[in-house]
Amino acid sequence: MIGKTAWFQRRKYGGWGIFPKTWQGWVYIVAAIIPLAIFQYIPFLTAEVRFAATTVWVVVLLLDVFHIMVNLNRDEREYKIEAISERNSAWAMVLMVGIGVAYQSFNSIGAEVPNVDPFLIAVLAVGVLAKAISNIYYSRKSL
Fold first, then answer.
1. Are residues 66 and 80 in the same domain?
2. What angle do CA 32, 50, 31 make, to 5 degrees?
3. What residues pair up with 18 in beta bridges, in sequence order?
């Protein structure tokens, strides 16, 4: 693709994704942003063409970043740290979504129709489903 894995490292302390570790990584980021600005400021482009060009460019960048992330070199310790961090992050998000559902439930106790965001319920249900499928799959597979 466009970027090279040697230019980046796993983002450790500020979310998910990659972080530049060389000057080429920083150039890659600047070079990725410039076309987005250009698409917005070309005066003769219609809104539809701007949207299409921006969408295509963002999809290309997302695919490239995903390719870089998948191919980053990590040792066994980094895999374990990442797995524990992801698990802790998932538990924190589940806790906060659960608190949100409980808050909405308690606020709608007196209402005729419960006012709980179905999207939050779906998020929790999909999380439970993903965990169940993962447990079934990995319990049958030798690790």
1. no
2. 10
3. 10
Domain span holding position 133: 76-140
Alpha carbon distance 133, 139 (integer Å): 10
Same domain, 88 and 67: no
The answer on 58 and 104 residing in a single domain is: no
Domain co-membership, 50 together with 87: no
Dihedral angle over CA of 108, 113, 115, 121, nearest 10: 120
pLDDT tens for the chain, 143 residues: list them: 688 888 888 877 766 778 888 999 999 999 999 988 888 888 887 888 888 888 999 999 999 989 988 888 777 887 788 788 888 888 898 899 989 888 888 888 877 777 888 888 889 888 888 888 888 888 888 76
The whole-angstrom separation of Cα 100 and Cα 87 is: 20
